[in-house]
Amino acid sequence: MCEVFNRVILSLREKPVITLLEGIKHYITVRIVKQRQMLERYNGEICPKIQVMIEKNKRDVGGGRQLGMVMWKWLILVYQMRLIHIL
Questions:
Q1: How many of the other CB atoms lie within 10 Å of CB of 12?
Q2: Quick check: pTM over 0.70?
Q3: For residue 76, with 0-12 CB atoms within 10 Å meaning exposed, 13-18 middle and 19 or more buried, which class applies?
Q4: Are 64 and 79 in a shared domain?
């Protein structure tokens, strides 16, 4: 996202501060409207990106009945990572 944002404001950088801020406001407003319109058309129960991650994990473990195990492994991994960062 940072690279895209920097590319968008590249043409605005040499303009006065007020113009720069108005350009950023316009970009963010248009992006929010596009995202909202995209999600209004989506009929799933959870966000599309999260759904893709869950489906990938289901394929990796061999089916939907083991989804709980995937979540459990993910929780263990997060816990271990936190322990590593603390130690």
A1: 16
A2: no
A3: exposed
A4: yes
